[in-house]
Amino acid sequence: MLSESAVEESSIAAVTTENSVVVISDDEAENTLGDSVIIIGCLEQSISEEKTPEEVLDDELAVTFSRKGNVLPHARYDCTTHPFVRSENDASAPLGKNSDACGQCFCYLCDKLTSLCPYWTSPSICHCNAHNKSKYWKAARDTALVGVLTMFNFDLTEIDVDLRQGGNHLLKFMQELFVQYNNYLVGEEISREDLYPCMCDCHQGQRRKSMGCNKCNYHHAETRIYRYSAVYDLVSKFVTQAEQENPETAAVMLLGVAKELMLQKEPPQVGQAQDPTEVLKSAVVQLMERITVTLQKMLVLHNFPNNLYRKFVDFFKALVFPPHCYCFANRLNILPWHDYLLTSVLMGQNITGERTKKGKKEFLWEPLPVVQARVERLKDEAKYRPLVRYLKAVRCNDSLLLKVLKDKIPFYMCKYGDFDGAAQVLLNWKSVDCCIVCRITPAEFAVYLKMFRTRSYPSGNELLSQEQWLIHPNSALKSGTTIKLAIQMLYTNQTLYRNPKCWSSLIQTWCSKTILGENGELEPLSCVEPAVVFQKDILHLSLGVLEDLKQQIHIKLPIQFSLLNFEAELILAVQAVVRILLDLDGHYMLNSVLEMVFAFGSNIWALKLLLEGISFSENLLYEFSTAFKQELYSQSLFAQRMWNNQGPVYVSQLITIFITHNHAVVRSAAFVIMNIILDHFSQCPWTPYVANFLRNRVLIVSCSVLTPLEQHELKDKIAVFQKQNATSPAIGK
Predict the structure, then answer these.
(1) Are 729 and 690 in contact (CB under 8 A)?
(2) C-alpha closest to that of 189 among 107, 306, 284, 270
(3) How far apart are CA 109 and CA 137, in angstroms?
(4) Alpha-carbon separation of residue 601 from 442, 598, 633 (angstroms)
(5) Which among 147, 148, 140 is positioned nearest to 124, based on CA atoms?
(6) CA-based torsion, 365, 368, 370, 374: positive or negative
(7) Is residue 47 exposed (0-12), middle (13-18) or buried (19+ Cβ within 10 Å)?
(8) Nearest to residue 307, comparing CAs of 249, 248, 378, 369?
(9) For a Cys-Cys bond, which of 50, 216, 625, 715 suits 212, CB 3.0-4.6 Å?
(10) At a CB cut-off of 8 Å and minimum separation 6, what does 475 contact?
(11) Residue 701 — φ and ψ, nearest 5°?
(12) Which residues, other chains included, contact 300 with Cβ-Cβ below 8 Å and sequence gap of 6+?
C-alpha cells in the first residue's frame, strides 16, 4: 500500500502529463505541496515549453518558460529578418537586399507598408535605401511628411493640425495659381486699335481706309496684352478664405501667398490698363497691403509660441522683394508684447513713450493696424489702465485715425473709476491739436453727462453701446466738477452749443438722481422749490460763473452753491440754457422744445425760471411758444403718454405756469395742452383734479393776468374737465 505522499506525487504527475501543468516550487524541497504559482497553458504550447532547455542565469534564478515575441510594425532599416545596407544618399537602385522586406516593414519616407509604397524600388528615387542616420533621407522624409511647410523650417514636433491644414490649403492654392499665372503669361492677342484709336490722316473724311496706309499699318497689327485680373481674383479669394481660418492656419496661408507673389514677373505690356487689378505691379501692391495688414493684426492679437512667432517673421524677412514691393520689407518688424519699451509704457513706468538708448532717442512708434490691434486686445482683456497709458504714449503714421482712437481715452478712464482724470482729459489734453470735446457728438455728450452724474459706465467697450451699466461705488467727483464740465463742453463745441437736444440732456441730467435705476436709466429727481431769495441769489452768482466758464477759466463754485447743492446746480444749468437761447436768438430755428420741457420732469419751478429768463426777448419767447405748440400737436400721443405717467399734479402745475405768464403767446400754449387733453378725454380720468386745481389756483388767485376772453375759455375747460366720470371723486378732491 502506497504512502500518502506517494499518492499525491503520482496524482500531480498525472495532472502534469494530461493538462500540461508547470509547477514552480517556492523552495528547493522535493515535496511540491503548498506551491504558490501554477501556470496552465494549452497542450501544444506546453510541449514546446517542455523542450525549452533550462538556462541558469543566477544561483537563485532559473528560466523555466519562454515564448518568441510577435513582430511589430517597424522601419525597414530596423528589420531583424532581412539585413539592411546603409548609405548616405544612394537612391539610384536598391543596395544589397534592401528591397526585401517582411510583412511588418514600413517605408521610412511614406510611412506606409513597403507593399504600398509606389517608389520602393523605383530607379533614382529608391525608398528602400532610406534610413534615419542620413541627413539626405531625413530631409526627404521631412519634405514628404510636411509638404510645403518645409519652407518655414518647422520642426516636426512643432507641426500640429492647424499648421498642417494651412499647408494643405496652400499646396492646393499653389497648384491653382500655377495654372492661372501661366495663362496670364500666355496673354491674349488683340488689335492695337482696340486699345486706342489710330490718329492717322488716312482715316479722316472720304479717304478713310479700313486697313490704313503704310504709315499706320503697325498700329493695326495684332499685339499681345496681359491681364492680371484673373490672378488677382484668385489670390483675393484665397486671402479671404485665410482670414476665416484660425490664426496658425491663416498665417501659413498668407505667408505662402506672399512668397508666391514676390516671385511673379510682369511681361512687357502694351498700353495702360484703366483697372489697376489688370496690371501685375499695382495688383500685387494691393494684395500685399491686405496680406501684411492682416498678418500685423494677427501677430498682435494672438499668442503664438515664441519659436513659431519668430519663424513666421524670419520667413517674411527672407523673401526677396521686387522694387515695387520694397515698402513691405519691414512690415512685420512688430514689437512683441514683452518688449522693454512697450512693457514700460503699459506698466506706467514710461509715460512719454521715449527713451535714450546708446545716445539715441527711441520712440514708441507703430503702424496704425498694429495700434488698432493692440487697442482691441487690451479692450477685450479689460485692461483699460494700460490701454490709456499706451494711447497717450504711442505715435503713428496716420495721425487722424490715431486721434479717433485717442478720443476714447476719457471713456476708458471712466471704466476704471478715474472720473476726475477723464474730466481733465476731455478739456485740457495738450498732445492733440484740439481738445477731445470739440469732436464728440450730441449722443456722446449725453452719455458722458450720465457717466459723470452717476459715477457709472456701460459694460461694453463702446461709448454708445446698449450694454448693462455698472457703478463705481468708491469713485467720486469733486463737488461742482460735473456741472462745470458740462457747461464748458457746451461752450467749447459749437455743434453741442447749437443743438437743442444737448440743452435737454443738460436739464434732464440735473433733474435726475445721482444713482441709476435698476434698468440702467436715469431716475427722475424731484427737487423742492427753494426760497425765492435763494433763487435770486444763485441767479445773480450764475452770471459771473457762466462768464468765467465761457472763458475756460478754472473756477470754484461760490460757497452758496453748497447750501442746496442739487437745486443750486439745477438753477445754474437752467441759466446756462437761457444764455445760449438768448445768444442764438434770431440765428437759429428752435426745435425739440417739447423734449426740453419734459426734461424738467416734476421740477416745474425750474421750467418757470427758464420762461422768465427768455422773457427779455419777445421774439425768442414767441419762437419758443410757437415751436412748443406745434410739437404738442404733432406729438400729441407722446405728450398724452407723458402726462399719464406724471400724474394730475404735474399736468396741473404745467398748465399753471403757462397760463399765468404775462405774455399772451405763452398763455396760449396752456389752452393747447387742455385741448389735447380733451381730444383724449376718455384716457384722462384725472381731469377733475386738474379742474379743481385750476379753479382754486388760477381763477381765484391769478385771475388778473387773464383777459376776459381767456377767463371765459378757461371756465369752459374747467367745466368740461369736471364732468369726467363721477366715479373718481377722490382724484377730484
Answers:
(1) no
(2) 270
(3) 8
(4) 21, 6, 20
(5) 140
(6) positive
(7) exposed
(8) 248
(9) 216
(10) 417, 418, 419, 455
(11) -90, -50
(12) 334, 337, 370, 373, 374, 377
Spatial separation of the C-alpha atoms in residues 722 and 547, rounded to whole Å: 49
Instruction: Tell me how crowded residue 61 is: count the other CB atoms within 10 A of its CB.
Output: 8
Task: Say if CB 226 and CB 269 are below 8 A apart.
Answer: yes
Distance of CA 27 to the CA centre of its chain: 78
State how far the Cα of 194 lies from the Cα of 192, in Å rounded to an integer: 5
Residue 337: closest CA among 304, 363, 311: 304
* Low-confidence spans in the chain with pLDDT less than 70: 1-59, 63, 190-223, 269-274, 429-433, 586, 701-702, 724-733
Rounded distance, CA 504 to CA 599, Å?
A: 6
Nearest to 368 by CA among 342, 321, 331, 314: 331
Among 718, 709, 617, 719, residue whose Cα is nearest residue 667:
709
Neighbour-count burial of 596, counting CB atoms closer than 10 A to its CB (0-12 exposed, 13-18 middle, 19+ buried): buried
Q: What cell does 625 get?
A: 411758444
- Whole-angstrom distance, CA of residue 170 vs CA of residue 257: 8
Q: Please name every residue paired with 23 in a beta bridge, in sequence order, or none if there are none.
A: 38
User: 470 Cβ partners below 8 Å, 6+ apart?
Assistant: 456, 457, 458, 459
* Angle separating helix axes 636-646 and 664-679, nearest 10 degrees: 90
User: How far, in Å, CA of 468 to CA of 247, rounded?
Assistant: 31
User: pTM for the complete prediction?
Assistant: 0.76
Q: Enter the C-alpha cell of residue 367.
A: 503702424
List Cα–Cα distances, 654 to 646, 650, 705, in angstroms.
11, 6, 17
> What are 478's three cell numbers?
469733486
CA distance 27 to 36: 10
User: Counting beta carbons within 10 angstroms of the beta carbon of residue 151, is it exposed (0 to 12), middle (13 to 18) or buried (19 or more)?
Assistant: middle
Helix, strand, or coil (residue 176): helix
The structural domains of the chain, with segments of one domain joined by +, span: 4-63, 158-197+218-327, 635-733
Percent of the chain whose predicted confidence (pLDDT) is above 70:
83
Q: What is the pLDDT of residue 560?
A: 86
Residue 420 near residue 480 (C-beta atoms within 8 A): no
Using CA atoms, how far apart are residues 242 and 252, in angstroms rounded to an integer? 9
* Burial group, residue 688, by CB count within 10 angstroms (0-12, 13-18, 19+): buried
Give the integer Cα–Cα distance in Å for 522 and 450.
8
> Read out DSSP for 431-491?
SSSS-GGGG--HHHHHHHHHHHHHTEEESSSSTT--PPEEE-TT--PPTTHHHHHHHHHHH
Choose among 723, 722, 727, 724: nearest CA to 699: 722
Report the alpha-carbon distance of residue 682 to residue 692 in Å, rounded: 18
Residue 306's CB: how many other CB atoms inside 10 A? 10
> Regarding beta strands 354-357 and 360-363, do their DSSP bridges make them parallel or antiparallel, or are they unpaired?
antiparallel
| DSSP tag of 354 | E
Three-state DSSP state, 74: strand
